[in-house]
From TrEMBL:
<dbReference type="InterPro" id="IPR008930">
    <property type="entry name" value="Terpenoid_cyclase/PrenylTrfase"/>
</dbReference>
<feature type="domain" description="Terpene synthase metal-binding">
    <location>
        <begin position="509"/>
        <end position="712"/>
    </location>
</feature>
<dbReference type="InterPro" id="IPR001906">
    <property type="entry name" value="Terpene_synth_N"/>
</dbReference>
<dbReference type="GO" id="GO:0016102">
    <property type="term" value="P:diterpenoid biosynthetic process"/>
</dbReference>
<dbReference type="InterPro" id="IPR008949">
    <property type="entry name" value="Isoprenoid_synthase_dom_sf"/>
</dbReference>
<keyword id="KW-0479">Metal-binding</keyword>
<feature type="domain" description="Terpene synthase N-terminal">
    <location>
        <begin position="242"/>
        <end position="440"/>
    </location>
</feature>
<keyword id="KW-0460">Magnesium</keyword>
<dbReference type="Pfam" id="PF01397">
    <property type="entry name" value="Terpene_synth"/>
</dbReference>
<keyword id="KW-0456">Lyase</keyword>
<dbReference type="InterPro" id="IPR036965">
    <property type="entry name" value="Terpene_synth_N_sf"/>
</dbReference>
<dbReference type="InterPro" id="IPR005630">
    <property type="entry name" value="Terpene_synthase_metal-bd"/>
</dbReference>
<dbReference type="Pfam" id="PF03936">
    <property type="entry name" value="Terpene_synth_C"/>
</dbReference>
<dbReference type="InterPro" id="IPR050148">
    <property type="entry name" value="Terpene_synthase-like"/>
</dbReference>
<protein>
    <submittedName>
        <fullName>Ent-kaur-16-ene synthase, chloroplastic-like isoform X2</fullName>
    </submittedName>
</protein>
<dbReference type="GO" id="GO:0000287">
    <property type="term" value="F:magnesium ion binding"/>
</dbReference>
<dbReference type="GO" id="GO:0010333">
    <property type="term" value="F:terpene synthase activity"/>
</dbReference>
């Protein structure tokens, strides 16, 4: 028996097809996207947002200008200037003349980039990043005071700090990494410099007490991760820090943790030529300011590719994505430090490279699955859930049967994520909780890509803001452009799906399949499976091949299961074997006439189109898969009719064929890629893949039937249960 069909109550929103008895909700938009997405929600046929190509009857996106703009922006890594890090670089003295700044251009930048309210920072007083603004502002004040310039800017900066100081003590507000150590440390520096802070002594004492509590909490952990974390936030510890120990974390590029602020802070205490050269190289590249982390190109480009793919618009930028991934693949082969030194970057590179066909080994992730290695890292010490989520996603991209590295990584990361989700966890996930919960409930292999696109669009955050010690942006792409394109593209596809579904309904009626009283009418479900997997607008023929073959397998399955007599079944098989157009007088019944005529005309039509694409005749191969299928169905019908219980081996050898995937998959493959050689489908790889998919489908189908998903089990389901019971009894 062919595949059964479950209720679409969970998955019905993927394609957005409005149809009786199936509810396909329109695209929902969260508050963060609504401001730029309102017009996109009504992007249906006839609303002026699409044009038609002159060369094909396929709608194309109307805003080609937007796609061109995004295409040009994709390779650009546009790291925002960090007021916080630039201030620390500005405090570095000249090695030869410590009374003079080594980078006076940074001081000029600080003076020019103060906000009207007296603050510094990427977004001024962003509602959720007040602590970031306080930290950036106080750092800039210290830099100006260190060299006794910008007195008015210092005054305005201190006024801002005093006005919003209460926010620094608000534990409910988001804190940049290390804020509880760095900000009190900078307060101490300000007092030592003789700055007149507009803050009560009591509030200052509260901040110092918060720092002491944080240091006490951190000291309870003796891991290497704790030491690395304290080295990363060393600018907040000043003379109490062992700077020689901190320098042990220096990277090949001369930096400490790729952090300009940590590197600059170290240079205010000890001289290091490589560290100084790192800062000089940044200013040569970025001018008079520095970003909060560098290099970050690979991580930024990976995030861009990931974002584009998750929005469902990757096919518009395949050239740009290939160029990026080719570059990252070369870096992967060269063991680039920017990839290997950061767990999240390495995990994302592994996932995206593998998902895009690059043959890379999972060995590079082996150390990340070691609990001791993870918790001895900064990310492990901080329990950085974004990093853990990336590790979990990477662990699911398996292509080999025994990838223990990924199994170990998946076990560790999933346990950490589940612990973080628990109500008693000390590490609240906040905005990540929904994404983590979804990832744990629905593994990668159990998801439909189009459903992922829809969910990501709905929850897309236009603000491309990330936070380390301070907030920053890194991509040159305007997220508003990306979102609008994704919305338009998604709704364009929906309109196409609706028209295609109407075509399927018309085809069913034209072939009189709706007149067969024994047959289930599953054309909506059959088309849904096609559109959910083969969703690009130009893939019309592939979707039609999949949907029509699936509809036919359902009807033929019902015919062999309970709809036809033995005489009719034999007659039908005989007709498929002959595959002759002159068959009008060979039908033993009208039901055979309807069924065979529909199969004959449909397969010949699909075969003709596929043959044109493949530049050789492939119709015979499609017919051959159908003949193999109906013979397998006949064998099961005979077992049921004679009450024969086959062995489990006999049952599975026939069952993976009768699950009816081969005619659907093989015929569709002719439409979805390059030309397929004659030998390819006859080779062992294709045979084994087909067999494995069929076995999995057969077993899942039988289990679901047994568990009561279908109120009327078929003869085949009952036969499977009897076979399993007989096998169990013999082995007991």
């Amino acid at each position: 028996m062919a595949m059964q069909f479950l209720s679409l109550s969970v998955y019905s929103s993927v394609c957005g097809i409005g149809y009786p008895n199936i509810y396909m909700p329109s695209l929902r938009i969260t508050h963060s996207t609504r401001a730029v997405a309102t017009k996109g929600l009504t992007a249906y046929m006839g609303h002026g947002l699409m044009k038609r190509s002159r060369s094909a009857n396929i709608p194309i996106l109307g805003d080609e200008v937007s796609k061109k703009r995004i295409s040009e922006q994709i390779p650009n890594v546009d790291l925002s200037s960090s007021s916080y890090d630039t201030a620390w670089v500005a405090m570095v003295p000249l090695p030869e003349f410590p009374q003079s700044p080594c980078f006076p251009e940074c001081l000029t930048w600080i003076i020019k980039n103060q906000h009207p309210d007296g603050s510094w920072g990427i977004h001024g007083l962003h509602p959720s990043l007040v602590k970031d603004a306080l930290s950036s502002t106080l750092a800039c004040v210290l830099a100006l005071k260190r060299w006794n310039i910008g007195e008015e800017h210092v005054r305005r900066g201190l006024h801002f700090v005093g006005s919003y100081f209460s926010s620094a003590m608000d534990e409910k507000l988001h804190s940049p990494i290390g804020f509880e150590i760095i900000f009190p440390g900078m307060l101490g520096y300000a007092i030592d410099m003789g700055l007149d802070l507009p803050i009560s002594q009591n509030d200052i004492d509260v901040m110092f007490h918060m720092r002491d509590l944080e240091l006490q909490r951190v000291s309870e952990n003796s891991s290497e991760g704790r030491k690395a974390y304290l080295a990363y936030v060393a600018e907040g510890l000043g003379k109490s820090q062992d700077w020689q120990e901190v320098m042990k974390y220096q990277r090949e590029n001369g930096s400490l943790f790729n952090s300009p602020s940590t590197t600059a802070a170290a240079l205010t205490h000890i001289y290091d030529a490589k560290a100084l050269e790192y800062l000089r190289s940044l200013l040569q590249k970025f001018g008079s300011s520095v970003p909060t982390s560098y290099p970050r190109d690979i991580h930024t480009l990976l995030c861009v590719v990931d974002k584009i793919e998750r929005l469902g618009v990757a096919r518009h930028f395949s050239f740009e994505i290939k160029n990026i991934l080719d570059r990252i693949y070369r870096c992967w082969l060269n063991n680039d430090e920017e990839i290997n030194a950061d767990m999240a970057t390495c995990a994302m590179a592994f996932r995206l490279l593998r998902m895009n066909g690059f043959g890379i080994s999972s060995d590079a992730l082996s150390q990340f699955g070691d609990a001791s290695f993870f918790f001895n890292s900064i990310q492990g010490h901080l329990k950085d859930m974004k990093t853990v989520l990336e590790l979990y996603k990477a662990s699911q991209i398996k292509i080999l049967p025994n990838e223990q590295v990924l199994d170990k990584l998946g076990s560790l990361s999933s346990n950490i994520l589940r612990e973080a989700l628990s109500p008693n966890s000390e590490h609240g996930l906040q905005v990540l909780s929904q994404e983590v919960d979804y990832a744990l409930k629905f593994p990668f292999y159990a998801n439909l890509e189009r459903l992922e696109h829809k969910s990501y669009i709905e929850n897309f955050k236009v603000e491309n803001l990330q936070v380390l010690k301070t907030s920053y942006t890194s991509s040159g792409i305007d997220d508003k452009d990306l979102l609008e394109l994704a919305l338009e593209d998604f709704n364009l596809c929906q309109s196409i799906y609706r028209k295609e579904l109407q075509h399927i309904e018309s085809w069913v009626k034209e072939n009189r399949l709706d007149q067969l009283e024994f047959a289930r009418q599953k054309q909506i479900y059959c088309y849904f499976t096609a559109a959910a997997m083969i969703f690009s607008p130009e893939s019309f023929d592939a979707r039609m091949s999949w949907a029509k073959n699936t509809v036919l397998t359902v009807v033929v399955d019902d015919f062999f299961d309970h709809g036809g007599s033995r005489e009719e079944l034999v007659n039908f098989i005989s007709l498929v074997e002959k595959w002759d157009g002159n068959h009008e007088k060979q039908f033993c019944s009208e039901r055979v006439n309807i069924l065979y005529s529909a199969l004959y005309s449909t397969i010949n039509e699909i075969g003709a189109k596929a043959s044109a694409l493949q530049k050789r005749c492939v119709t015979d191969h499609i017919v051959e898969t159908w003949l193999t299928l109906v013979k397998a169905m006949m064998k099961e019908s005979e077992w049921a009719r004679t009450n024969t219980v086959p062995t489990m081996d006999e049952y599975m050898a026939n069952g993976y064929i009768s699950f009816a995937l081969e005619p659907t998959i093989f015929s569709t493959l002719y439409f979805v890629g390059q030309e397929v050689s004659v030998d390819a489908f006859g080779g062992p790889e294709y045979h084994n893949l087909n067999k494995l998919v069929g076995i999995i489908g057969r077993l899942i189908n039988d289990m679901q039937s047994f568990e009561g998903h279908h109120t009327e089990p078929s003869n085949m389901t009952n036969l499977g249960i009897q076979t399993a019971y007989a096998s169990f009894s013999m082995s007991s």
